[in-house]
Design goal:
This protein is 53% helix and 12% strand. By secondary structure, the chain is an alpha/beta fold. It folds into three domains: 3-133, no CATH class; 139-235, Rossmann fold; 265-455, no CATH class.
Length: 461
């Protein structure tokens, strides 16, 4: 069986697994809730409708079966979307055939199916990666352009053997001087077509500069003549981070330098709903945590219970960030970060900072809409003024609301930043988060934050 045939076989194996999840969930519902299932509808018709309803989902989300590079939070997001489409199709067919399905049965079935499908897709992804690491189901690829852009692409393609890319070599009009790249050089651009035919190349990546548009068009024509997938790698890394968003104004194509999922109203609605729900629950129980902490803070040293500080928020607007006061009253609170062994921190304050209890009043900020549960940590105005002049893309982190916790924090960049490099890394993580947001990433960050509090964090002081 050829490489393409194996790819199709893998796709249909995953599809078969999806239908096993559908039927496994149905029979589990029948075993757990037999009376409700029998009373709700003719189980044979219901079973048939469930399988029929999933067929359009297979076609609508077929890209998930072919993706070579994916992440668990994106996988969960796609599973949720496929579930929503599945539910809507099933309910529509049920209404059309005038079949009433009990709410309890529906809830149990679709929740169990969601869990089974998540587990299956995650397991399938791991199995396929292992399969590709063993040298199967690979794509034969060449890169035309052995300069910086081509070298960066090569590094990404080869970063994980589980992606299944078999790199066959570079082509360029100029032979590279670097020994490692020169060893992968296969010849001049004029030799590309013969090499691709002789070696049955699957994908051609063109990483030539835009000034060489004649060669780029020639590579496109070569790919089309020989049924090879063609990709252009734009030289835009100097003003982009990781993703580009494609759009059109009339007949004019546009590339946005970053994709921001939270620009979509549905994404904002989902994130804001979670913010209100969780912060509302925490505030509802505030008498149990606010009063004892307030008394302890009041007794620790003279001054107010809450520390209010102007910080930079969404789109660069200032807001009053709330915390339990952990320091003695001092004149440097708005300009100087807390340091390890800081004499300004009280004993009660040290405990609150170590356990992150000092951040709890920020749930009020979240509920009022100035902050989110997850997002870039808000910085004091002095730091915003200083770092915006020193760090590229620093102000980009303000395209979304600041958070109580964030992607940078769970990756080790919490607390004091002693060097400019530490702040640059924090900004890099913040920008990555706003470009890759999804609700499952937020859940992951919240869980990692709770785990960090439980096990203790050396940067919490």
């Amino acid at each position: 069986m050829g490489n393409k045939g194996k790819g199709r076989m893998i796709k249909w194996i995953i599809v078969l697994g999806d239908f096993i999840c559908i039927n496994l969930s149905f029979f589990l519902s029948y075993l757990i809730l037999p009376n409700e299932v029998i009373a709700s509808f003719d189980w044979r018709i219901g079973w048939a409708l469930l399988n029929i309803s999933y067929v359009p989902v297979v076609y609508a989300f077929s890209e998930v079966y072919n993706e070579r590079i994916t992440y668990i939070d994106l996988l969960l997001s796609k599973t949720l979307k496929s579930l929503v489409v599945f539910v809507l199709i099933f309910l529509s067919l049920s209404m059309f055939f005038n079949i009433e399905v009990g709410t309890k049965v529906q809830l149990f079935y679709f929740v169990s199916f969601f869990l089974f499908l998540n587990s299956w897709w995650f397991a399938a992804n791991k199995i396929i990666r292992y399969y590709r690491k063993r040298g199967y189901n690979f794509k034969r690829v060449v890169i035309v352009g052995a300069r910086q852009t081509g070298q960066i692409l090569h590094k990404e393609l080869q970063s994980n053997a589980g992606y299944g890319y078999k790199f066959l070599g570079f082509f360029d009009s100029v032979k590279p001087e670097e020994p490692k790249i020169a060893a992968l050089y296969r010849g001049d651009i004029s030799e590309v077509e013969k090499f691709c035919i002789d070696n049955k190349v699957d994908e051609l990546y063109c990483a030539l500069p835009s000034a060489e548009d004649g060669h780029i068009i020639n590579m496109l024509q070569i790919s089309e003549r020989n049924t090879i997938r063609f990709f252009i790698v734009p030289e835009v890394r100097r003003f982009m981070t990781r993703t580009l968003s494609y759009g059109m104004i009339g007949a004019v194509p546009l590339l946005s330098v970053r994709e921001e999922p939270l620009q979509r109203w549905l994404a904002r609605f989902v994130k804001r709903s979670m913010d209100i729900l969780i912060s509302g629950i925490v505030i509802l129980f505030s008498p149990f945590w606010y009063l004892p902490i307030a008394i302890a803070v009041k007794k620790s040293s003279p001054g107010p219970v809450l520390f209010r500080q102007k910080r930079t928020g969404y789109m660069g607007r200032d807001f009053d960030c709330l915390k339990f006061r952990t320091m003695k009253i001092n004149k440097d609170s708005d300009t100087k970060q807390a340091e390890r062994g800081d004499s300004r921190i009280t004993k009660v304050g040290a405990f609150l900072r170590k356990t992150s209890l000092d951040e709890f009043p920020q749930f009020f900020n979240v509920f009022m809409g100035d902050m989110s549960l997850v997002g870039p940590r808000p910085h004091m105005l002095k730091h915003t003024e200083d770092y915006s002049k020193l760090i590229d893309k620093y102000m980009v982190r303000h395209f979304i609301k600041p958070g109580i916790t964030g992607w940078a924090q769970v990756n080790g960049y919490r607390g004091e930043t002693k060097t400019l490099q530490q702040m640059e890394k924090r900004v890099e993580y913040d920008v990555w988060y706003l470009e890759h947001w999804n609700i499952f990433l937020d859940v992951k960050i919240l869980l990692l934050t709770f785990w960090g509090i439980f096990k203790g964090d050396d940067n919490a002081f």
